[in-house]
Design goal:
2 copies of one chain form a homodimer.
Chain A (H helix, E strand, L loop, with lengths): L3 E2 H8 L3 H9 L7 E3 L2 E4 L2 H14 L4 H7 L10 H30 L9 H11 L17
Antiparallel strand pairs in A: 1-3, 2-3
Helix pairs in contact in A: 5-6
The structure holds a DNA duplex.
Chain lengths: 145, 145
DNA sequence: GCTTGACCTCAAGTTGACTTGAATTCGTAG
DNA sequence: CTACGAATTCAAGTCAACTTGAGGTCAAGC
């Protein structure tokens, strides 16, 4: 079964057809052809959609994701950029881990006020030490619409 | 130095004053008072802002964050909910780790086409196996605006 | 060969999270 | 006491990422 129509892809990816059309419109994915009007997709589309979904949950914008993987799904960034992204992710993973620990902690800690609890404060202190220069750089590449 | 005015908080948190006002407007934070018109904040606000920033980077909406921590910064969810959130985070951390590994891999792998590379495909396969029931449950708690 | 249902297009609407701008109000330095 | 600069309010604007709706099209089953 090499070819999937939009309903199949929607079903398997969990994304509504409108979103798939939208992603195609902004050049994030490509359809393999049409059956009548109906869009048909190759199986690699499912992988691309996984990448996109992962990227989104990583906090990347669709624009940034489009920058990481061309519409053919091939990563097309220079090595350095990819590694920079990976480092960003490392930081984010650290933060999430912290947040998770904080949540688990407050779920178990019997202290009446968590802001008083030394463990909790320690958890927070780490992330509080974030400087102000770290806003995500706005990339303004010519929107390909 | 117990009390900070909005400029200090902006400086230390890295958030613009407009955002701080906005957060206050939607009930996410509270100001401790005014000096003339100027908002003054207690030091705990900085911690709350860290939590908010972490939560955002974890992909939570401001509404959800408001649900996790009351405007006093005290977590006020039942234990079970907190643990559920923590589990969500675990999954997300797994995904991000995967994505990071994928990025690092393609930065190093010499294969001409990554979609052919077995290592890359294996990395993707894991997340592709996501079913469709997993949309984040829309919580419709009465927006407190 | 006609109906039907799922898909199509295109424009417009929505939501969340802010930002911007005009007109106004203070506290402080001179 | 006046001027200045920074903060204030409130309405409106912006941006990304979709969704919705009206009106049209097709291929497959009957």
């Amino acid at each position: 079964m090499k070819i999937l129509d939009i309903a199949d892809v929607a079903e398997r990816s969990g994304l509504p057809p409108s979103t798939l059309r939208y992603y195609e419109e902004i050049g994030l994915i490509d359809s393999a052809g049409r059956h009548g009007l109906r869009r048909q997709y190759g199986p690699e589309t499912l992988l691309q959609l996984s990448l996109i979904t992962m990227g989104k949950s990583a906090g990347f914008s669709l624009d940034e994701i489009a920058g990481m993987f061309g519409s053919d799904g091939q990563p097309d960034l220079p090595r350095d950029d990819l590694l920079t992204r990976a480092d960003q992710l490392d930081r984010q993973i650290r933060d999430l881990t912290l947040l998770r620990n904080a949540l688990r902690h407050v779920a178990e800690c019997p202290a009446p006020s968590h802001m008083e609890c030394p463990t909790f404060k320690r958890l927070l202190k780490v992330t509080t030490a974030r400087k102000k220069g770290d806003q995500r750089a706005r990339k303004k590449h010519p929107s390909k619409r």
